Amino acid sequence: MTPPTVDVHAHLLLPDVEALVAGRPGLAEAKTLDALRNGPAALAVSGPMVRDRIPKLTDVTVRLAAMDAQGVDVQLVSPSPSHYHYWADEETAEKIYRHANEATAAHCAAAPERLRGLGLVPLQHPGQAVEALDDALRQGLLGVEISSHAPGRELSDPAYEPLWTRAEETGALLFLHPFGCTLDERLDQWYLSNTVGQPTENAVALSHLIFSGVLDRHPDLKVVAAHGGGYLPTHIGRSDHAWSARSDARAGCAHPPSSYLKRLYFDSLVHAPHVLRELIRAAGPDRVLLGSDFPFDMGTEDPLGALRAAQLSELDFHAVRGGNAATLLDLV
């Protein structure tokens, strides 16, 4: 049986969440930081870009028509990372994740054969994370989307151990999608905040999971990294060298860093055929999933065309096109 074509990197806008946080203490400061990190030129382009895409981000009928045009059978839909709001206090954070989980589930329920969803957890409050994940699962979502860090906390922080444990126990997916880069104004021109910042954040976050031993302690954790895992998979040799050469680098994980790539999943959104081929070589053809970043401008409007451009074997093409995701998402 031919598996469906599955896009694991597609987004949803949640107006109710933004209405919820409007005027809350901390929002203005967060927006100021976002403006600092991106710069005025990027914000001037991003605002109209998002507005033009609101129908695709909110209207199920429009989404399905776009999926049909792309040849995509199933989307794994996650909230726009702009909804993380990791500045929020505990009371507000709980309202955010409950609204986000419910709204995402409702969006997907409008086309249950074609849409699967992910919720949110407030990484800034690790004590809420397990309940937020459980709430997402109760809503029928497959897991949650997380950023590369929270203020003052990396993903290696021991406070997240209960979240990893619960995700492993339930088989929940964790979609690692950064939002913002802590290099701040160094990247505030030419959209470096995204082109350099996002893959940097992916690489840092995955390195924390690897080098701290999180993946040793939780070998069945299902982590899907957006943007092909950023710089890490194509530069993993440097990590392996450090692990071999230095006692401090190998103090936290039991095996060479490159071996952990085969325990993770990666989307295919790397924007160059030779990079996709290297990602598949490094992680394995069973660990790469089709991803488009629907419908944003830093994604691809033709994810299957981008996959064909890599000139993979027939077996690997169909694995990435949908076979791997169909197994991971239990679609078959």
UniProtKB/TrEMBL annotation:
<feature type="domain" description="Amidohydrolase-related">
    <location>
        <begin position="6"/>
        <end position="331"/>
    </location>
</feature>
<protein>
    <submittedName>
        <fullName>Amidohydrolase family protein</fullName>
    </submittedName>
</protein>
<keyword id="KW-0456">Lyase</keyword>
<dbReference type="Pfam" id="PF04909">
    <property type="entry name" value="Amidohydro_2"/>
</dbReference>
<dbReference type="InterPro" id="IPR032465">
    <property type="entry name" value="ACMSD"/>
</dbReference>
<dbReference type="InterPro" id="IPR032466">
    <property type="entry name" value="Metal_Hydrolase"/>
</dbReference>
<dbReference type="InterPro" id="IPR006680">
    <property type="entry name" value="Amidohydro-rel"/>
</dbReference>
